[in-house]
């Protein structure tokens, strides 16, 4: 229920917005692209749009539906992972993690071979499994956490820097095998980064005072609003007599996305989050 209160209200508000988008753009006399397929509102509402993407080999033609495939995967994970944990004991968690990593890799290789987009839970479950490793170690493997604690702090801080650099670098290399290797590499790097924040001492400290930390509260809105605002900025720029520099346009879209996300959180999302106190 707590996850539902966090995810569903804005999700369904964006589904409604996507449905109204053509009417809004026509009213504002703004053009829009018909690239991709017309979304299935039933599938979108049931968190199944990602499977239509896989079947059609395309994306919905309406923002923000085209980025919601990852949200569909997240919802499927909550269901599958929860059901599995209902039936297995905690001592079998390492086996579950190992199986999930193998399953994710096999499905991703198979999808790559047959030209199918890797946008379902089975081809992404290894990401969640790697994320479970630090949690399991923190709760049940204190002696391993002591070893992690002894790793030099300089190395611990260097790892997230390297991970961030690779996020920007790898997409510029158009090598087929990278699509299969990169997920495992990113999983190891980011799971390790999380692990390095969890030790009792000699750990990575991410202060809540950092601007980037404060923005973390609004990341759900950033995720859902960014494609809408970027598309709007591009359309408005086409109508201007003097075209705005692409860098300035990107900066303006970023600032507007952050602003809209903050307003959405405080005026809309937060009203539902207040209900969390009833579900402990």
Précis, in short:
The protein has 280 residues and is mostly helical. Helices cover 69% and strands 0% of the residues.
Give a verbal description of the structure.
The chain is mostly helical and 280 residues long. The chain folds into 2 domains: 1-52 and 208-280, no CATH class; 88-205. It has helices at residues 2-27, 41-45, 49-56, 69-87, 93-114, 125-140, 142-149, 153-169, 178-196, 211-215, 219-239, 246-273. Helix 6 (125-140) packs parallel to helix 9 (178-196), helix 8 runs antiparallel to helix 9 and helix 11 runs antiparallel to helix 12 (246-273). The radius of gyration is 21 Å and the shape is globular. The termini are close together.
Number of helices: 12
- Tally of domains: 2
Radius of gyration: 21 Å
Can you tell me the overall shape? globular
Major pleated sheet: none
